[in-house]
User: Fold these one by one.
Assistant:
Number 1:
Amino acid sequence: MKKLSLACALLASAVVFGSQALAQDKNKGGFVAPQTEIITVEQANGMGDDAFVMLKGKISKALGDEMYVFTDSTGDIVIEIDEDDWNGQNIGPDDVVIITGEIDKGFTTVEIDVDEITLAQ
């Protein structure tokens, strides 16, 4: 009976410590790409699918379902910002932001799937 109790205690501690170790590994970070130059909406519209881009401008309109209109001095482009990519920031239409993400080209549309959004300094 004592062996069974000891085995259960060891198993329970292994589960607790193992899950803590996995949680810590998730927060270690990852690859950091070299700084990309900021481009314009006009340039982004001419780039290929999955191209990595960085743009500076304003979010001028919410379209719903995580879709927005991003505007700079050269035009507008639709962007998609997932809920977790806001990082707790509240951003309005007068705020200048920098977005990074990938071009998502459809048959007749060009959008940017945003990975990161930050307030411009």
Note: The mean pLDDT is 84.
Number 2:
Amino acid sequence: MFVIVNVIFDNIIFALQRSGGISMVWYELLKRSVADTSFSKLYLEYANENIFYQQLALPTEQCLLLKNRICVERYLSPHIQSVFSEAVFHSGYFRILPQKGIKNITTIHDFTYTYYRHGLAKSVHLWQERYAMEKSAGIICVSEHTRKDLLKLYPFVDEKKVTVIPNGVDERFHPLASNDILKLLIPFERGSYLLYVGNRKVQYKNFSIAVEVAKTTKLPLVIVGSPLSEKERNQLTTVLGIANYAMVADASVEDLNKIYNGAFCLLYPSLYEGFGIPIVEAQKAGCPVVALNVSSIPEVAGDGAILIDCHKKNFENEMSEAVQSVKNGQFDSVNLIQRGIINSHRFSWDKTYKETIEFYKKIERE
């Protein structure tokens, strides 16, 4: 059996995000790497307040703390002494180690900068992203849709060095027989509220549509993510009424599982996803999913979600009608839940880790 000799993990993503999908993926990778004694490793560290990093226990003798000039360092190659003569270098966020004997690995999570960002931030990011594509010996995409985007946007990339390794889902998500302690988290009864999980700041996530669906269906809305701003609170109070929404910031996995279990359904009106982890989390917890039939979402959701055609005008009305059909018993929600649970079994972080290590081995052999 081929054995990896050395791997350098660049943990810069923890300094760039306090939380978020990419840092969650990186956390799941590192958590398993610590317990893996089949290869030598080095972790490049930066000071950070990331909530996932706080749960890690990286061996100090395998860590190298670098300068914390994140506004500059995020775009530059790390400057380290030659620790290994040969190694695989895998960065949490588009960095390359231009050192003899190093084979660089880059993970592509999505192309939101390409499709939805503008100005200088977009230009600088795309420069860094392109450089990583050019210099990487191997590229990991988190979905087949992301791989297709990659090959369309960067036609010079050799298809043979690209692999698809889907994200996983935490094993702690599961259906609960009883949810009596849900009231300690939110003021709504089990099965009575709509759920929105994720970023609200970027337009393509369509948080405003989730609010409109809640208003139309007359179901309260629970929001999980960053704390609400005063402007958001005022808008939600105006549209829904102060008694018809609740916010849970930085929910633990255990609490999020309870919230999924208690929800009438997860609303996922996003127009673009590289993967869409909340969809699989909800399915694994036995929570019905109503989402848009676009980007990677049908690939990830399988037949375990109600998918809405986003190309229709006023597709928020279609989403409201789908929720209403479940609410009125016109749609078999029990069957939908079962299909979602079965679909979620396709994904696990252990599988993601195993496939990532196998890809390291493949790239190091070449």
Note: Residues 6-168+348-365 form a domain with the Rossmann fold fold (CATH 3.40.50.2000).
Number 3:
Amino acid sequence: MPDNTHAETGTGLLLAAGASRRFGTGNKLLAALNGRPLIAHAAEALRALPLARRIAVISTAEIAPHLAGFQLIRIPQGEQSDSLRAGLAAAGLTDRLLITLGDMPLVTPDLLVRVLGRCTDALPAASRQGDGPAMPPACFPRSWLALLEGLTGDQGAGRLLRDLPDAQIIQAGDQLTDIDTQDALARLQG
């Protein structure tokens, strides 16, 4: 059974400041899936958890109406680590930092609860699809926040997750489908 003792003192961080270059025209986070924008799916999953705070890092005000209940941090589009560092600065010291991505609309509250519960004071927890790499949703304990702050470039927290022991990984199946292209969105709708 997941340990959720840190849920009410943890912070949810929704990263939604990407450039959507491969998606084509328009903001992919506003593209409709099942009648709602992609960002609304990701926000709803995070809203379902009893977290102390919810922060969303965004690069455009267009998605703000779908982020009720989130502290919004607006940054210029840049590298992945820029979004992460902006979210960390807003979160400050928190017992747990649960990181989710705005372009993963299939992530469920149950998966988030399981990732949060698997995180320990000493080790993060992350998700995996099949034999793929460990990835968000991921949860970091306070003891790892300085390592997150030190990340640079166009990579997120993935480089800190790659050597996690299997016990810290949650198999998530197709919930980790991210929408980077119009074709990816069409496959979900078809």
Note: The chain has a mean pLDDT of 88.
Number 4:
Amino acid sequence: MKRILLATGLLLVSAAAVAAGFSVSSPDLSPNQKIGSKFVFNSFGCTGENISPALNWKNAPVGTKSFAIMVHDPDAPTGGAGFWHWVVINLPATMTGLAQGDGGVDSKNLPAGAQQIRNDYGMAAWGGPCPPVGNKPHRYNFTVYALKTDKLAIPDGASTAVVGFMVNQNTLGKASLMARFGR
């Protein structure tokens, strides 16, 4: 009986440590709140500045060798696939965040080896929110993945689905922040 209680106690402590550990935040985004126009796409009828928001993360799991970031709108009317706004892989394990604007098309502010993947707008860069007019505000999930590999070997032209599969196959932990935008 003591062994069962001890094992149960260790599992509860381990689960609490994981739950209270890895987290993501942003000075530019408030959880469950509206995304500012600075970060909104500048096309398809939207007139934002299309600047990527800053993201910060802390307490990555032990054994993290790199990070990936994936930003997804599950509410996009795409037949169930949602819409990928930003995918960045191969960020070094020493990183604890990206600054506002690091998701530009030129990738000049990303560390060597980091790679932006083509989003659903068709560009390898940040593509801000721009949901259809009149819909309820969409949710935008900003997820940072702690990976057990130094580098994901992604073939040129790979879809976000392939990248998502590779990221999830190598995930030690993930942390998310959700913000909203509608028009």
Note: Residues 3 and 9 are 10 Å apart (CA to CA).
